[in-house]
Write a structure and sequence with these properties.
18-stranded parallel β-sheet, alpha/beta, about 40% strand, 4 helices
Length: about 450
């Protein structure tokens, strides 16, 4: 481009020189001179247009370089990768500058290495899309008493946020698990989770790992259009109350291509959740993929539109399930929930509706659940079951399940008792189709 502009400039100078030379030798006719002037003006106009275009391109390139340079490295703010020095102040300083930047995709960088991080509350709104890239390992304080909040890392009121990287968020939960007595003590204190997202919208968590959380790994509340992609969750089977991803009162949540190994539900979907998609997720160990538990508290919002598809569960206590408490304090609803194309490998209770969910006998089974379950399907579910009871559909006696489809179920019992898998049904008349192994809700088992 620059060569072309130089050539144009040379032509203009040449034409000027020729014009002067001709004036001194032969008087030009007026019409000929006018034509020459028009040609010169046209050439000058073209040169100016190309100059403007060149300047515009240079400005765009400069802006692109500036956008790529919008990196806020926590080590530049005092963070040390020694695993002992708290980097919370450095992280918050880097975040405040990134959040205030108008450059799209400003990124807080946590480079490779091991860093100690105490509890932080990362808050928006920000002026442009923003992210945190974790390449190293973040360590939470091992003693839960040192985390003065219900979450180790909290994100609030942020739009267009990305949490990514090949790094690890290590909650160091072993001490907390050993002292967790919440199953026996109703007044047990709060135990911090790894990640909490409150009112975060149009955002994504990608590639990162959550390890050994003291409580839930991830909790979403009031979020909209939120995705988890290639996310990894890891904790021992014996870790208490370590739900992988818990969703509450959120809309448009997608969990895809994710691997969850934990001590509780891999995915749990609470009240007020709508348009939730769980696809290509591997789960196990853990307690399965669950909707609920529902119906424990007053004022719960409906669950509408949940799809769990093309997932694999291995060595989990449960498969895909809906659960609600009996003795509900108020009515509730859960509808449009679909489980399809699921592989079960040595899974207990692979297909389960349980409206008598009552862990630790903390409820009154005499009073039925007031949660109305409707428009549910279980299709193309196959594999092996570790419990002889493979399909259990036990609904509320006061609000029987409605419009439940069961089709193409093929589950083989591989336990020590021997014999074939069985089913149990109560307060339900399902719509059956395709293969039924075991036979579902036959006359001897339905009520």
């Amino acid at each position: 481009m620059y060569k072309y502009l130089a050539s144009l400039s040379f032509q203009i100078k040449k034409q000027k020189k020729q014009k002067k030379s001709l004036h001194s030798i032969i008087p030009l006719k007026k019409s000929s001179q006018t034509k020459k002037n028009k040609d010169i003006n046209r050439t000058r106009k073209i040169a100016m247009e190309f100059s403007i275009a060149a300047i515009s391109i240079l400005l765009l390139l400069t802006q692109g370089i500036a956008a790529q340079a919008a990196i806020f490295d926590v080590t530049k703010y005092g963070a040390k990768a020694d695993g002992k020095s708290d980097i919370s102040q450095a992280l918050m300083s880097a975040w405040q500058e990134a959040c205030a930047s108008t450059t799209p995709s400003s990124t807080v960088l946590i480079p490779g290495g091991t860093y100690l991080l105490t509890a932080v509350n990362i808050v928006g709104p920000c002026r442009a899309p923003v992210g945190i890239l974790v390449q190293g390992t973040l360590l939470a304080p091992a003693d839960p008493a040192q985390v003065k909040a219900d979450a180790w890392i909290t994100f609030e009121h942020i739009d267009q946020f990305t949490l990514s990287g090949n790094g690890i968020l290590d909650g160091q939960g072993a001490i907390a698990w050993a002292h967790n007595d919440c199953s026996k003590n109703a007044n047990c204190g709060p135990i911090p989770m790894n990640l909490r997202f409150n009112s975060v919208t149009n955002s994504v968590v990608r590639d990162i790992t959550s390890k050994d959380s003291k409580n839930f790994h991830v909790n979403l509340l009031g979020c909209n259009n939120f995705s988890f992609q290639h996310f990894t969750i890891s904790a021992p089977e014996t870790s208490l109350n370590t739900d992988g991803i818990h969703i509450g009162r959120s809309t448009g949540v997608n969990i895809t291509d994710t691997n969850i190994m934990t001590g509780d539900d891999c995915v749990s979907i609470g009240d007020g959740s709508q348009q939730i998609n769980v696809e290509r997720v591997t789960c196990g160990p853990g307690h399965g993929i669950s909707i609920g538990s529902l119906g424990k508290y007053k004022g719960e919002s409906p669950v509408v539109g949940v799809t769990v598809r093309n997932c694999t569960l291995t060595n989990t206590q449960n498969g895909v399930r809906l659960k609600s408490w009996p003795d509900s304090p108020a009515p509730g609803t859960a509808s449009d929930m679909h489980f399809e194309d699921i592989i079960m490998n040595n899974v207990g209770n692979p297909v389960l509706i349980d409206q008598e969910y009552c862990p630790y006998n903390q409820c009154n089974l005499k009073n039925p659940s007031l949660v109305q379950i409707s428009r549910v399907s279980f299709k193309k579910i196959r594999g092996t079951t570790s419990t002889k009871l493979a399909v259990k559909l036990v609904c509320s006696s006061s609000n029987p399940c409605q419009n439940v489809e069961v089709g193409d179920i093929d589950l083989t019992y591989t336990g020590k008792e021997g014999g074939a898998a069985t089913s149990q049904c109560a307060n339900i008349k399902p719509i059956l189709s395709g293969n039924q192994n075991p036979a579902t809700c036959n006359s001897a088992q339905s009520s």
